[in-house]
Amino acid sequence: xxxxxxxxxxxxxxxxxxxxxISLEGKTWGMLGHRVVGEVATKHLSESAKQKIQSILGNxxxxxxxxxxxxIKSDKKYDYLNPWHxxxxxxxxxxxxxxxxxxxxALAGIDFVIQQLKTEGLDPTLEKEYLMMxxxxxxxxxxxxxxxxxKDRGGNDVKVTWxxxxxxxxxxxxxxxxxGKKYSxxxxxxxxxxxxxxxxxxxxxxxxxxxxxxxxxFRDGIYEYESGYxxxxxxxxxxxxxxxxxxxxxxxxxxxxLNDIYG
Length: 263
Known about the structure:
Number of domains: 1
CATH superfamily: P1 Nuclease
Number of helices: 12
Low-confidence stretches: 3-29
Strand order of the largest sheet: 1-2
Strand content: under 5%
Order of helices and strands: HHHHHEHHEEEHHHHH
Distance between the termini: 71 Å
Number of strands: 4
Structural class: mainly alpha
CATH class: Mainly Alpha
């Protein structure tokens, strides 16, 4: 009986550890960042765009649906979307000069869903899916390591230790710096959402390809770090301003696209 009791206790501990590992793994999808982009966009929508989006999403918000493309990764029906989360543009090149992935990428995906959302008589189910895709993809291309250099899978292969835990540069930029701040998405939106009218006009100009090219300007700095005691504090301090600005730009630009589509 005592041995059986010990086995039961051990099994309980294993279950607890397993559950914790699942919950921690669930934080690696950049949920906070995507929600902030969706929430910022909501603050800059025209009235006609707000009404149309509400008719599509019902009681859901742009922030709520912003992670849908990550939520469906376990559904094989949507496997074709996997390459859409990123784009590869090597240093010194423009997107048009690259060997564009025939299976698609973030930029091709954005162009596609915008065209579809502008189509009259679109099936309501598809319309909602395309809208949710657009919210997510605009967020993705404003995370600089989703515009990869083609050498290390957008920083995923650059292994580091982040506050005592195994990590990599991509994960740090996707979620760990943001999650470490302990803000809710509404708190962070309130903190960053103060663009000037001139900034809004400037950020919403240009093409989606231009926006991806601008991410490349940050890449060299992202790879500059010296692992050592408390290096994490120095690193997040150096890049926090860039991260906040990219989230704000992503939301403002998403609003511009939605206003154009539904205005």
